[in-house]
Amino acid sequence: MIKSTQEFDYVIVGAGSAGCVLANRLSEDPAVSVCLLEAGPSDRSIFIQMPAALTFPIESDRYNWKFESEPEPELHGRSIGQARGRGLGGSSSINGMVYVRGARQDYDSWRSLGVEGWDFDDCLPYFQKLESFEGGRDPMRGGSGPISVVRSKADHPLYRAFLSAGQEFGLRDAGDYNSGEQDGVHITQATIRDGVRCSTSLAYLAPARRRPNLTVMTGCLVEKILVDGRTAGGVTLSQRGERKMIRAARETILSAGTVGSPHLLMLSGIGDRTALNEHGIASTAHLPGVGADLQDHVVAPLRFTSPGGVSIRRQLNMVGRLKLGIEWLLFKRGLGATNFFEVGAFFKSSDAIDYFNMQHEFLPFLADFQSGKVTISEGFQYFVSQMRPYSRGRIALKSADPAAKPSIRFNYLTDRRDTLEMVDGVRKTLDMANQSAWLRYKGAAVDTPERTASDAEIEAWLRTVANTEHHPTSTCRMGSDDLAVTDSAGRVHGLEKLRIVDGSILPRVPSANINAPIIMAAEKIAAAMTRG
């Protein structure tokens, strides 16, 4: 039974990387009322605010939805965990804080899918609008936006060895990789402000919450979109055991993410008619692309021991963590103010590739972020990931119960081209790890192929270790083909007053960590909405 009903001009479902942006920009107009709904809690936690504590929210059921894929057919039936933020700031409150825009070619290629107005030159003003880059404003960078972007210090010997080894191999120094050509080794840029994680909750939502026309509700499980004929009019939800109706006079906007938005559409009868009927859900709008076309960056870790005391591991023991925490609490500096991903690279797996298709992220210790429980030991590791996968997965219903998690299958490496690119990328990485810059620091390989391994041996190893970069996109993608769900402004095809703004609408996963592109997309669509 519905206990209460409220009405606003705009109802936004999900206070994540996109939802917080929309809440801020739409509520800038004092004549409109905005309601932001979030399933999770507040983000007021030292473990979210401290960059170095990023492992804690990843391990937490409180801040992480902790989705699990179905058994992956080309990964020996392994289920892959997928971290998605749950709480104010969404995934921007639990991610690795690495700031990458993506390549010009990524956005320009979206035209082939019938997406207009999203070329890189169309997107650049919104990247500039969102960021406050420590290097200041220039023709490519923003200097006064809500999101603080800083260069990492990268002053540890292992970071310097990574950069030197990449250049010895033949990669260039990319410098400011968000300002022009992205390929090469680089010092990473991060979304950190004065030693604190700069999530969209901190950057966009916190200043907007002072406005009387913005209402923020946490602990809200949205159950269904209200649809009358072809028009969306709000949502029903459950909050602390009480069912409520929140009506939207102008628009209902889904910003629940690449998993959450298609899930809610399907629960509301919007999706493939046949699949919905299997769960007893009446079809409101037949859109077979809902949940389809799931894309993600597949990743493999190459791990090496190092002589005792070289890696940062020794600074992360019990005593070291205590010192780290005290220094951060008092001064917001030291290891507590880093995300540890301070260097990286983009490169081609082969000369046959048009532009870089592989990414390196790097840690100066050994860590397993995939198993749900993070463990740290002595050594260092390269993370090798493929930027533009050909394999496609899907989100589907397991149940008509809104509290039940959906079915997720990524289908990693099901397209042979992905496997071949990853094998080539791993082989090049093994060569980089064999450069003279590593002579003083590298010990034995740990669950990592030798340079003499055959392609077949590397492929077999990949299928045992390949995992997710936690960069899912495209399950409600923009476009005009049969599988497109939204138009170039995020409006759901065939329905009125219903829009989606989050990573699910990106036509293809960018060659980037996806937080920056999602914030950019929210800024771009919000600007179009407020222009009328």
Automatic annotation (TrEMBL):
Segments forming domain Glucose-methanol-choline oxidoreductase N-terminal: 85-108, 257-271
InterPro entries cross-referenced by the UniProt entry: FAD/NAD-bd_sf (IPR036188), GMC_OxRdtase (IPR012132), GMC_OxRdtase_N (IPR000172), GMC_OxRtase_C (IPR007867)
Keyword entries, A-Z: FAD, Flavoprotein, Oxidoreductase
GO molecular function: choline dehydrogenase activity; flavin adenine dinucleotide binding
Pfam entry (one): GMC_oxred_N
Biological process terms in GO annotation: glycine betaine biosynthetic process from choline
Cofactor: FAD
EC number: 1.1.99.1
GO CC annotation terms, alphabetical: membrane
EC main group: oxidoreductase
Binding site for FAD: N95, G96, M97, V98, V222, G503
Family: Belongs to the GMC oxidoreductase family.
Protein known as: Choline dehydrogenase
Lineage: Bacteria, Pseudomonadati, Pseudomonadota, Alphaproteobacteria, Hyphomicrobiales
